[in-house]
Design brief:
The chain is an alpha+beta fold and about 160 residues long. It contains four helices and four strands.
């Protein structure tokens, strides 16, 4: 069998596998993207971290109130030193964050999905105090955006048949 024929066989096999597994594009007519966009109300933020997450979620999912689904979450983060000098001063820090979420049907209050995501980001502490504080704030905002993006990715992977 020549190389050309093998390639056609592989393409036909891949097409058969994709069609056999009920593949549906996320933003297709029956995909999860079209079922969650502008259809989820996100809880009001109570902390600065929650504000960053809510802002990113509303940017990615849209803002809707009332909506057929409601999303509640709790977010936390902590700091740990990564790099130190010979004298013991920390030069690099890491922020580790965790976000736990619950997606519910607004009409029935039945849980559709729940879980948690974690991520981390780092920043340098080698500048003056003002530079270190600015780097920390930027790292926390990056971390909250990353957690929100991971959450959206999880929601896009939900089975569209389970969404109202």
């Amino acid at each position: 069998m020549s190389y050309f024929n093998k390639r056609h066989l592989l393409i036909a096999g891949a097409a058969l596998l994709v069609s056999a597994c009920n593949f549906t594009p996320v933003y297709g007519p029956d995909g999860a993207g079209s079922k969650i966009e502008n259809r989820i109300v996100v809880q009001a933020p109570t902390t600065k971290d929650a504000y960053h997450v809510t802002r990113r979620l509303e940017t990615r999912l849209g803002r809707s109130d009332p909506a057929p689904m409601s999303l509640s979450f709790s977010v936390s983060n902590s700091s740990a030193g990564l790099g130190t000098t010979a004298t013991g001063s920390t030069t690099r820090l890491q922020r580790v964050g965790s976000l736990s979420y619950t997606l519910k049907n607004s009409a029935t209050d039945k849980t559709i999905s729940k879980g948690s995501v974690t991520n981390f980001t780092g920043y340098s502490a080698t500048g003056n105090t003002a530079a270190t504080l600015a780097a920390e704030r930027a790292a926390i905002e990056r971390l909250m955006n990353a957690l929100a993006d991971q959450l959206v990715d999880r929601l896009l992977l939900l089975d569209p048949a389970t969404l109202p």
